[in-house]
Write a structure and sequence with these properties.
The chain has two domains: about 1-25 and about 290-399, Aspartate Aminotransferase, domain 1 (Alpha-Beta Complex); about 30-285, Aspartate Aminotransferase, domain 2 (3-Layer(aba) Sandwich), CATH 3.40.640.10. The protein contains 17 helices and twelve strands. It has helices spanning about 1-5, 20-25, 30-45, 45-50, 55-70, 80-90, 110-120, 135-145, 170-180, 200, 260-265, 275, 280-290, 290-315, 340-350, 375-390, 390-399, and strands spanning about 15, 75-80, 100-105, 125-130, 150-160, 185-190, 205-210, 220-225, 330-335, 350, 355-360, 360-365. The radius of gyration is 22 Å and the shape is globular. The relative contact order is 0.15. This is Aminotransferase class V.
Length: about 400
Amino acid sequence: MSENLARQFLLREDVVFLNHGSFGACPRPVFETYQRWQLDLERQPVEFLGRNLTETMRVPRIALSAELGCSSDDLVGLTNATTGLNIVAQSLDLKPGDQILTTDHEYSALEKTWAYVARRTGAEIVVVKVPMPLLTEAQFTDTIIAGMTERTKVLFLSHITSPTALLFPIERSIAEARKRGIWSVIDGAHTPGHIKLDLDALGADFYSGNCHKWLMTPKGSAFLHARPEVQNLLNPLVISHGWTIDSKQPGAKGAFGNSPFIDGIEMQGTRDPAPWLTVPAALDFRRDNDWTSVAAHCQQLAQDTASRLGELTGLAPLSASQFCAPQMVAMPLPECDVVAVKDALLDKYNIEIPVFKWQDTCIARLSVQGYNSRPQMDLLIGALTDLLGLTAGAKRQAS
């Protein structure tokens, strides 16, 4: 399976690419569609950007909404999830003393976003420590709810965490936030194409995710979803052609006939929309290659590899299996120089994989996608065994 699929990707053959989670990798047929869109744009820029763009942008929105379980009217195309979450964070009316509740597992770019918002508004960031290892849903949810106060205005959570590759069970936390009048803002950077989503059922106020990671579109393709009741709270980061002065009025239309939410954010003047326009092609590629089966195989390969490494290190996983992202796993390592290990994996073994320290834990974060294979996992285990002296370490622990 992996050999046939590997030929459909553009990754260098001399690199063992185990880091799909960072920027994704685009299949050749989807990339070719992307280039055709770019060529169409260059052949008649005025027609493409000036006359046809509103209708053209609607097509991927409709296709993606079916995949995400939501209305296409509640979805807008963006370049990345960080942009979507910045739109939300910088739009919400926060005041001194208001609290933004979040966890100690969030992505650093968004930690900085909320720090910026807090400095500008006087709001306070409250970080709860998720109990580790994460073994039960109640363990997570009870911790989040215990952090809510009368001053909590925003609940910000990752759905799948970047540093620890955990799949947080966020449903009850979102429901409780709604009951208390707390805005829920979800970082779904790793979720589209990785786990099954039903955004309407989830009920988060705001949810932003990347398509260029696990959905495998080209870089620069993402979305922001907002419930209809809260769309009027949002302002674009850049005011451009799609914005109208009455955008906050009930029943208002954007400058191009969509809602102010869509037109104000999506229609930003001159930019290359080609990555977003490939969403239908990426969905077709997944269907044509039975990606449900591919993903199940990748999940098994990821979990097997993590278990093998755990047997060598004697270190427990960060969570029970149901709270681990299906195709991405943060594997604890013995105390080590993480930069030296990461560099040696690339320089000596041609393995591209993130190795870093999160809090007090050294981690190698493994991503497994359809182009990866069991021999590549064997190579990784052998390389880590060599670099970390795991055979000797395992004997010492056994004694």
